[in-house]
Amino acid sequence: MLWETVKLSVQSILRNPMRSFLTVLGVVIGVAAVIAMVTVGNGSSAQVTSDVESLGANLLTLQPGQSRMGPGSSDGGAARPFALSDVDAILDQVNSVSVAVPTGTQSIVAVFEGENYQTTVTGTQNGYFEARDWGLSAGRLFSSAEEKGKSVCIIGETVRDELMGRADPIGQKIRIESLNCTVIGLLEVKGANTFGMDQDDTVIMPFKTFARRIAGSTDVSSITLSVRDGYSSDRAIDDLTALMREIRRIDPGEDDDFSVRDTAQIAAMLSSVTSVLTGLLSAVAAVSLLVGGIGIMNIMLVSVTERTREIGIRMAVGAQASQVLLQFLVEAIVLSTLGGLLGIALGLAMGAVGSAMLNVPFIPDAGTIALAFGFSGMVGVVFGYFPARAAARLDPIEALRH
Amino acid sequence: MPVDPSGDRAAKIATDPPLIEVRDITRIYGTGEAEVRALDGVSFDIRPGEFVSVMGPSGSGKSTALNVLGCLDSPTSGHYLFNGVEVGGLDGDQRALLRRHYLGFIFQGYNLLPRTTALQNVELPLIYKGMSREERETRAIAALDKVGLAQRAHHDPSQLSGGQQQRVAIARALAGDPQVILADEPTGNLDTKRSVEIMELMVELNQSDGITIVMVTHEDDMAEFGSRLIWMVDGKVESDRPTKRAA
């Protein structure tokens, strides 16, 4: 009898497909919104994590000054820079670190055959590529002779594009400020980082060349480090802090005048922000599911009035009140469940399009889909009960006279 | 039930125990000043195989009486025995079961479900009898065949004429294999030719299938197709006699 009722309700839903569709539109939109939000949210979280990992999974950065969050925080300008000897001291004394290279950056204009392009030059050593987990797509790294101050550089894909299009950059000479340097390598494409900065928009040269010819001083503005496998980044940060306090002669009780930035921390912070946002948006979407349920109740109530005569006929041929109740209840449940299925399909489609547009991976969440499906069925039960009871309570004579 | 030769048949009906016994039934709507006595002390018996026409001016209570007989309405007082069972003591669900298994209805406005084929309409009472799909279809086709509409089984009511719609409604009443068919002005919406066709069909069901028929009508010609005529005025039975056809 129940299966029979389900089949009957499908029939009566299909008898008026347009109205049925409009009835469940609210549920469709609600479910679709929840699914799309969660899918895109998951994709963003995964993207943030992989973006941060693209900086280098075990990457630490040592910077002068305290970098606190909030307004008026940066006192980096006043803090003492590091020296090359600090880098040697770290490599010598800190076991938990496998790479430590001096890093300096400066904004410059690169020129090639009349093309000008504003970009950033980074002076560093070969270890930088290891720490950032960054390979070359063409050419080679610096030789040890070149690291002592030769005019060579490795460029990113964006700089190559802007200056020479698709031409082979290896062996070409580009001018950076007053320095003519030979391109010896092309970096692998990394794309934008979490903050939307194009990581391929860069020129990298040996630190000594950079210090002598571009920056004009051997001060080290930051040190790029990599945590040795088998050590935690917390351990490495503690070791580095202890060493730097000693080198920079900071008395116990005084604040550090340097800071260590950990990419893992940034990753955790960013994904927690993303998941809070996803949660909030999903909550808004869930409210629209509730509104969708009220829509179903409204139309079902109208439908009971409209079908009063049908109810009367059914009662006349022997339907009991409970069977009429069951029929309308099942109809509401089937209707809202179909709406839920439609919403899931639509939500996944929207999620796929949204993920593609935001350039994040498409990660549908089975749990959320099951939950949305169950919830849409529940909407049918809750909001279908009241109209169904109204139908079951009709007086057959009144209903037939309608 | 086998077809009786006409002489024996009348004698048998007269001696059978009554199928329906109505004793001093009242049906009162409203209270106090607004009180309406739709039925005011009605008594009669109906034996199996009878074809009873009920007539009377509007407001005489003939439709109310039919609703009470059909277990759609409950009397305010009095006794209604169906097959010897007191119907007044049954609750809504039990009355629904009685309608399901013993009664069939035919209405003036046909009351077919719209956008539903003739076949599905006829199957409707069988669904509530809990029959399988195959059995329902076989029975519904047989009932449609009996009213001469088997080839229209898959038409919607909107594609059928009034006379055809009423015949589908008769097939629906018939499909459930009822003891009694209750008809409320079945020819009220039809022209004379179609009306006669419908009445001939009802007489055929009464005579050859032995189905008891109670029909409310306001047309003398149609009432004459029955075997007995109950005339009601002001909620009371004024006369109760055999029709000319039966006499």
TrEMBL record, chain A:
Domain MacB-like periplasmic core: 20-242
Membrane topology, from the record: Multi-pass membrane protein
UniProt KW keywords: Cell membrane, Membrane, Transmembrane, Transmembrane helix
Domain ABC3 transporter permease C-terminal residue range list: 283-396
Transmembrane segments: 21-40, 280-304, 324-346, 366-386
Location within or outside the cell: Cell membrane
Cellular-component GO terms for this entry: plasma membrane
Family: Belongs to the ABC-4 integral membrane protein family.
Protein name: ABC transporter permease
TrEMBL record, chain B:
Keywords: ATP-binding, Cell inner membrane, Cell membrane, Membrane, Nucleotide-binding, Transport
Gene Ontology CC annotations of this record: membrane protein complex; plasma membrane
Domain ABC transporter: 20-246
An MF annotation (GO) of this entry: transmembrane transporter activity
Keyword 4Fe-4S: no
Record field: transmembrane: none
Record carries keyword Oxidoreductase: no
Domain of life: Bacteria
Gene3D superfamilies reported in the protein's UniProt record: P-loop containing nucleotide triphosphate hydrolases (3.40.50.300)
SMART domains: AAA
PANTHER family for the chain: ABC TRANSPORTER ABCH.1 (PTHR24220:SF86), IMPORT ATP-BINDING PROTEIN (PTHR24220)
Family affiliation: Belongs to the ABC transporter superfamily. Macrolide exporter (TC 3.A.1.122) family.
Name the record gives this protein: ABC transporter ATP-binding protein
Organism: Rhodalgimonas zhirmunskyi
